Structures are given as C-alpha cells and as structure tokens.
C-alpha cells in the first residue's frame, strides 16, 4: 500500500523505522520528492519541520545565526523534553552539540588542539597497532561465527578512546560500561546507576589529572580554563560525554556497517582488495551509507524561508542526515553502495560550526581497520540476520553475526 506524505513524516519520529532501512528510505525518498520541508505532528512529540534535502540541511547548518541547537537539540518524546535552555556556565550536562554561539566556540576550543589533522596523524601508528590487534583477534576465531559489533567493532573503538584519554587496558571494562553501545542494553534503572558511576569515575579522573597532568586528552579537559577559571564539574562531564558518544559510536557503527556492506556487495569488496578502488574513497562511502547520526534538531531564532516554506521563530526543524546522504540530486544512484564514488559530499559529520570535531579521527580509525583487514580477508559471510538499533538520534548495527576466514 502506498505511503502518504503525512505517514512518511511521522516515520521520522518512529524509532523502529531506523531499524527497517527499506521503510525508512521509502519515507525519505517520498519527502524529498514531494515535501522536502514538511510539517510533522507525530503522536507523543512536539511538532517540527522535517528537512530532508541535502541543500536544505546544509543551509540550516550553515545559518547558525538563525537556527539554534537549544532548547531542543535532539528529537525526544514531549514528556522528556526539558523546558528552557539552561543558563550560563552552570547547570545540566550540555555537550557541544547542545551549545550555540560564543559558548559553543569556547567549549569547542577546549579539546580542538587534539583533533587537528596534525594531531590526529600523529596517532596513526598507535591506531594502526590497535587495528592489527583487532584483526588478529578475528583470525583467532578462524571460521567461527563472530558477533562483530560487540566482539570486534566496539572493542576496537573503545581501544582508541582509551588511547586518547591516556588510560590503559585495565580500564576497558569500566569505561566500556559508559559507552552508548553498552548503555543501550541496560534497563532504565541500570542506566541511571551507570550514569552515577560515570560522574564518579570521570570526576575522580579529573582530580587525578589536575594533580598529576599528563600528555593526554583527559589532562587537557581537566586543566582547561575559561576566563581564567577551571571548568566546573558539569562542563568537565559534558566534555567526557561527547567523547563517549561521538568518539566511540561513530567509528564502531561505521566499521560494522562498512563490513556488512562489503559482504553484501562482493564486487565492491573485490575492487578494494585488488586495488581497483581507493580505501579513502571507500571510507567516505561507508560513512555515507551508514550515517551514524540519524537526526538532530534546530530551533528557529527568527522567521526564515527555507525551500519556499516560512519557518517561524520558535518552530523546530529536524535535519535528516540519512535523507541528505541519499539525495539523488547530489549522489548519482544514491541507494547503491559504491566504493568507487568520488567527491563524496556526505553530511554524516554535519556542516558549519557544528561539524564534528572528531571527523578526522573517525576517518582514520575506519581506514586503519580496513587497511589491516582487507589484505588478510579471504571471505566474510553473514551468519545470521543483522539487527539495526531502534533510535531517533544515533545508531547503526546492534548485532552482526559474521563468519570470517583470514590469512595468518
């Protein structure tokens, strides 16, 4: 039965739709074609404008003077949406993605020096070692069914996170509990208890790095000053939250989704293994294909016309990244996974002032993993139904059983 535009709009507020890619992309294709800026009133949510074309998503991101992150930075049921925008430097945890203007600029600068191209390039040898270790562990399971997300991708991404923070492998079990991937499988009461543990752990780490600073990202955060003052507890914890959210999940879900795409498109895998395609281009295609962040929200500060539609001050917009990354006006044959695709203008890392600070690091992690895997990969076979996460914000594969044969 054909889907209506109204049904397509409501789909964007349905977490189960993001676990059903056929259904999701039917809705997004319809919205881009017939109502690229569409008013949506989903049950249980405050209404919003759905923005689905690549050019319009870029326009909203570019106009940070018009479209603000606060007070509604992500789509959530109406009953859970906090009122107000917070105030000043004190208050609830507010990661970078929730901040605007001068406050965003100041807090982004806290860790920016660690994510410059030069700083990221300096990490390549250590990340290469982590990637080779991950592939060695896969080889140790030669021919067995491996749940790739939990056993490989999450572990590899966690290793890079520990490297950044200056923590050794003995901290992996503790820090791993704080990652979004681990918290998703917890009951609500467990998540609450885990967040309390997160506060305790990272405030203790901050105190340690203030007393004994090292050359690591934890020390940078602990000893950063704004207007001559050390960051308060909420600001420190907000910095660590974004590291755990973006620093772990982006690489993990793209590595997993990238391998699934290669197993489902053996011709693309062959092109990478025999050198007919360039790995950096393939990494960009994996990022476009997976699009880890599904949607973010912005709120209009003043009236603004977008694609011929007047958005009024105070109205919210939802930016659909999976839709922008399948826009046929930008990506020829957008529903085809193509490792030969060049000049890839994917928007998975955002655009403008909120462009992901760790984008270069994520690319490096993904590239080094596949650089380690592909020369040794004899075969990869999906060994059970892959399962996608239900979400309206960030996600990808939840389960991916795979059987790999690797060269020793």
Automatic annotation (TrEMBL):
An example molecular function term from Gene Ontology annotations: iron ion binding
Keywords: Heme, Iron, Metal-binding, Monooxygenase, Oxidoreductase
Domain of life: Bacteria
One protein family per Pfam: p450
Family: Belongs to the cytochrome P450 family.
Protein name according to UniProt: Cytochrome P450
Organism: Streptomyces lincolnensis
């Amino acid at each position: 039965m054909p889907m209506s535009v109204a049904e397509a709009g409501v789909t964007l507020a349905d977490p189960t739709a993001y676990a059903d890619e056929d259904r999701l992309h039917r809705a997004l294709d319809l919205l881009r074609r017939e109502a690229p800026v569409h008013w949506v009133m989903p049950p249980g949510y405050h209404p919003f404008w759905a923005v689905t074309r690549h050019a319009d998503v870029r326009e909203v991101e570019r106009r940070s003077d018009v479209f603000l992150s606060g007070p509604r930075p992500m789509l959530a049921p109406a009953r859970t949406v906090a009122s107000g925008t917070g105030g000043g430097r004190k208050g609830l945890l507010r990661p970078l993605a929730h901040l605007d203007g001068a406050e965003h600029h100041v807090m982004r600068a806290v860790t920016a020096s660690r994510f410059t191209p030069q700083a990221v390039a300096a990490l390549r040898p250590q990340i290469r070692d982590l990637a080779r270790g991950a592939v060695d562990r896969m080889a140790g399971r030669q021919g067995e069914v491996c749940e790739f997300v939990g056993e490989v991708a999450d572990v590899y991404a966690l290793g890079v996170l520990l490297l950044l923070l200056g923590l050794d492998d003995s901290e992996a079990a503790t820090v791993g509990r704080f990652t979004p991937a681990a918290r998703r499988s917890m009951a609500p009461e467990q998540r609450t208890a885990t967040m309390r543990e997160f506060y305790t752990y990272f405030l203790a780490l901050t105190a340690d790095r203030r007393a004994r600073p090292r050359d690591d990202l934890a020390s940078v955060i602990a000893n950063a000053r704004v207007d001559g003052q050390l960051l308060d507890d909420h600001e420190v914890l907000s910095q660590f939250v974004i590291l755990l959210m973006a620093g772990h999940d982006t690489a993990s879900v793209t590595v997993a989704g990238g391998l699934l795409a290669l197993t489902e498109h053996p011709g693309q895998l062959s092109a990478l293994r025999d050198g007919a395609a360039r790995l950096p281009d393939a990494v960009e295609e994996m990022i476009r294909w997976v699009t880890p962040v599904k949607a973010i929200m912005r709120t209009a500060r003043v009236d603004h016309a977008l694609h011929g539609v007047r958005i009024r001050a105070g109205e919210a917009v939802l930016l659909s990244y999976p839709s922008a990354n399948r826009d046929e006006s930008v990506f020829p044959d957008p529903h085809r996974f193509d490792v030969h695709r060049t000049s890839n203008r994917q928007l998975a890392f955002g655009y403008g002032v909120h462009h992901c600070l760790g984008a270069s690091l994520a690319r490096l992690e993904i590239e080094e993993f596949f650089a380690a895997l592909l020369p040794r990969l004899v075969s990869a076979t999906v060994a059970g139904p892959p399962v996608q996460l239900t979400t309206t914000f960030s996600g990808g594969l939840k389960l991916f059983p795979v059987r790999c044969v690797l060269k020793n």
